[in-house]
Amino acid sequence: MKFFKYQGAGNDFVLIDNRDQQFDTKDTALVAQLCDRRFGIGADGLMLLQQRAGYDFEMVYYNADGNPSSMCGNGGRCIVSFAKHLGIIEKSTRFLAVDGEHEATINDTADWVSLKIIDVEHIEKDGDDFVLNTGSPHYVKEVVDLKNLDVFAAGRTIRYNATYKQAGINVNFVEAVNDGYQVRTYERGVEDETLACGTGVTAVALAMAWHHNRLGTYSTPIKAMGGDLNIRFTYLGNGVFKDIYLEGPAKLVFEGLYPGNS
């Protein structure tokens, strides 16, 4: 089975061209094995690129534990770069994911992707923190001294509390830096901190705009552990956000055959 390994700001994925429908989509054990960092290829998740009538392609995403998951923003950017690599698209695309239709553009060198995220029309408070859905559910918490925070312990406490344990939630810790924000994320499904989370940094940018009531069109730079990302959006007020774009790098790391030759 031929596979491709991509990363977007350190968020890494196994990608498989499944237009011939040869991959068994019910084999969750295989997905988990492929994503295993010691006994497999190693990744935060796995994506299948499939044919879908009316679209350039369909994105099917699995968490590293093998279970089907909600939308992954950095994964979405990586699969756009993969589609360009396969010759399916050139500079723009319209594809289908689990949360609906997405649009994206990619530069000539195929290493910078701007991905449109679903509109957001509602943000909730949980104490002093924020909860919203940007294609995946996210919890946003402002902290100080983020670099020294035990993200695994703090994130796991929130993700497995009585409110969120059953459905699960991604937990983002944020600290203001310069003209943007530093973000670290504990991801459900991976059940650990990842170097970046696309829908997570998007949730942070929107939550902070809502918190400070910053109406208008903005570009918010975000520093994730694995690299720099940018969020563009228009905030109309009352928790309503339109024209949301997640922008950042998406790069091919290597490709190979699984299982490889010993």
UniProtKB/TrEMBL annotation:
Molecular function GO labels: diaminopimelate epimerase activity
Compartments, as annotated in UniProt: Cytoplasm
InterPro entries according to UniProt: DAP_epimerase_AS, DAP_epimerase_DapF
Enzyme class: isomerase
EC number: 5.1.1.7
Active site: C72, C197
Pathways involved: Amino-acid biosynthesis; L-lysine biosynthesis via DAP pathway; DL-2,6-diaminopimelate from LL-2,6-diaminopimelate: step 1/1
Keyword Cytoplasm on entry: yes
Site location (Could be important to modulate the pK values of the two catalytic cysteine residues): H138, E187
Record key words, sorted: Amino-acid biosynthesis, Cytoplasm, Isomerase, Lysine biosynthesis
Catalytic reaction annotation: (2S,6S)-2,6-diaminopimelate = meso-2,6-diaminopimelate
A Pfam family reported for this protein in Swiss-Prot or TrEMBL: DAP_epimerase
Residues the entry annotates as binding substrate: N11, N63, G73, N74, N170, E187, R188, G198, T199
Subunit organization: Homodimer.
Record-stated family: Belongs to the diaminopimelate epimerase family.
Protein name: Diaminopimelate epimerase
Organism encoding this protein: Olivibacter oleidegradans
Lineage: Bacteria, Pseudomonadati, Bacteroidota, Sphingobacteriia, Sphingobacteriales
Gene: dapF
